[in-house]
Amino acid sequence: MNPPLTDWQGKTAWVVGASSGIGRATVLALLARGARVGVSARNGEALDELAALHNEAGQPPRVIVLPLDVRDAAAVATAHAHLRAATGSVDFVLHNAAMYDALRADAFALDTMLAHQEVNYVGALHVLAAVLPDFVARNAGHIAITGSVAGFRGLPKSLAYGPTKAALANLAEVLYVDLHARGIGVSLVQPGFVDTPLTAKNDFRMPALITPAAAADAMLEGWRRGHFEIHFPRRFTFWMKLMRLLPYRLYFPAVARFTGL
Predict the structure, then answer these.
(1) Contact 89, 138 (CB under 8 A)
(2) Can you give the residue range of the structural domain that contains 203?
């Protein structure tokens, strides 16, 4: 469905949300395959540590540190401009920045809802605003967006997080429809439970929990195969996809039994 990404040598990738978890593991996987990687997140110290491990004195940097807050459109645009100036062009971008706080409707908090929207969804729009003009002008590039199985259907404790991930899935689908004929790749990454600082907040057993490195391997394999949707681990996401097919009269009792909530 997408042009396969099989050769990363000499390519420039930009990972937004790169300081820990899936983002950091993806940076390491891309570096291992020969890419140069721009790394962005709010935690500049973590990004500097990553660069120190992979940049050699006297050599062009393989890790370009671009700290930013995705809620700041100007900062995102400036980071993209710096990356293009340093590398000549950007071939690939992964929007992976996210926030997650468990929330249920009986404790509704508007500030929490809006904070998730600003980081998870509006942040993605800021990244798109930066990269799309160049991709469209060149009829080249690849946009990857990290969603979540929490966006498949409504789940308990996901009042703030789930709707933003559902919105990202719809956004990625429309981007694919509009950009595929131009030769621009679009992919939607749909993780299950991955052992990251975000999932560490959960107070329940997480089935089929995998490492960030395993997640990154699944993502690279999906991009190699040209997939639009990359979901993992399949032993968990398979059942979540089946749940998505259930009519509401069956879905609501099933999710209550599955989660105990």
Answers:
(1) yes
(2) 12-259
Residue 142: strand pairing partners: 92, 185
**Within a domain: 29:** yes
pLDDT per residue over 182-203, tens digit each? 999 999 999 998 888 878 788 7
Rounded CA gap, 261 and 250, in Å?
15
Sign, CA dihedral 211-219-25-124, equals negative
> How do residues 56-80 score in pLDDT, each as one tens digit?
988 999 999 999 999 999 999 999 9
Q: Domain with 167 in it: what CATH number?
A: 3.40.50.720
> Is residue 100 among the annotated active site residues?
no
Average pLDDT over residues 7-32: 97
User: Is 5 among the domain residues?
Assistant: no
For residue 54, being part of any structural domain is answered with yes
Quick: pLDDT tens for 212-222: 999 999 999 99
In 3D space, the residue among 29, 116, 113 whose CA is nearest the CA of residue 70 turns out to be: 116
Instruction: Look at the alpha carbons of 96, 99, 102, 106 in this order and tell me if their dihedral is positive or negative.
Output: negative
Catalytic residue (choose from 100, 121, 161, 176):
161
Reduce the DSSP state of residue 19 to 3 states and report it. Answer: coil
0.90 exceeded by pTM: yes
For residue 185, is it within any domain?
yes
